[in-house]
Amino acid sequence: MIFIQYIARAVVAFVEAIIYWIFFNGVFERKRRGWNNLLILSIFPTSIFITGYFATLGLPVTIKLFILFTIGCIVANLLFQTSLRNIIVYQGLWTLCSVIGDSVSLGILSLRHGSINVAELLNNFTIGLQITFLSKTVDILIVSILVRKLGKETKRYSLSEVLIMLLQGISGVACLTMVIEFSYYNISTYQVTSLYLIVLSLLIFSSYIVFYQVFNSYIKKRNIEQEATKVQFYNQGQFEYYAALEKENVNVRKMYHDIKNHLLAIQGLNHENAEASQTYVEECLATVEGYDEFFDTGNELADIIFYEKCNTAKLNHIKTKVLVQKNSLNELEMLDLCAILTNSFDNAMEACKKCQGERYIKVNIIRNEAAIIITVKNNFEIEPAISKKGDLITSKKNKAEHGLGMQSLKMAAAKYNGNVEFSVDKEKKEFLLIIMLPIAYQNTL
């Protein structure tokens, strides 16, 4: 009989580990794939089995929960790609769900067998086994709802926010544990009814979910404001760079014309040692080649951005073709124009750099009565990775900076109630970015 009890506890620990994996895999991204995950995950059911054994020898429930909470955090940190603070918050939620599952199943079986004595129920092996497996069924139901509701976790919690979330969860766990232990040890003259235990469990769970939703709405708003501030600084830095470049460009144009005219005059007047003179002049002309490739879009900032980006593309052996309807960009604010043009061009150039053969970028900007339409087409060697949400996934090492660039582009378009869309032609190996900005817009930021 004792051997059967150990087998039952091992099966329960295994089932709980599966539910644990379903929950955390549903809200976090895995660090790695393969059998190593199974080896790390095995730590959790082993700890459940061992603490369960010591619980039969008198280990307090609170100590058992604390040990499992700590080990659960360690295992999740080894398996999943997120911050330790996020893991602590979700491990607390997992612990609360586990205790709620136990208390609900205890209440249901108590109603079924007509007993309000917890010790009497748990000391019966068959009924105790029924309570345990019903508890895991309730856990699966709760976890399925939470995973669907929460999705993959992207929030960032501060230390104070983690403590607030834990306080809410710990209070619920402590309340349920206290009620169950009062009933188990009969240390209270108050009789805990089965229905009361079920209702209390559901109320605690509901209150935590409501609190979680309200608190996370605040955190989401806070994070959006922080990202907006980052993007604003990012755009300001780009704008200041191109503003300085524009001032230099005026002087460069004048210098280019003066030098070129001077060299042409030398080329025409020099008759002595004509061959050496000709070679020297041609070399000088070659050094200023490319400075005559100026743009005239009707917008000085756009001109300098295209000039700088096309020269950079030329250094990377990328052909560029820029067609812009004159004065089509004058309705855009300078910071927004800078964000849209630089980031769309940079993304195209990054893809082209990986091409072994021909490399090209084609920019087309037109304005009609309804909208400004910006299209940027480029070829690619490696097909761009797209997330489940339909967003581009960067291949850059500096993912944070790339993310700011994409956010900057989307936020600038959203400011004009515009859309940013893209399409991938796998046969031609072409990527097309389309930005549509309605002319009659409301500034929403």
UniProtKB/TrEMBL annotation:
Entry keywords, A to Z: Membrane, Transmembrane, Transmembrane helix
Domain (Sensor histidine kinase NatK-like C-terminal) ranges: 332-438
Pfam families: HATPase_c_5
Annotated transmembrane regions: 6-23, 35-55, 61-80, 92-111, 131-150, 162-187, 193-215
MF term (GO), any: identical protein binding
Matches recorded under InterPro entries: HATPase_C_sf (IPR036890), NatK-like_C (IPR032834)
Protein name (database record): GHKL domain-containing protein
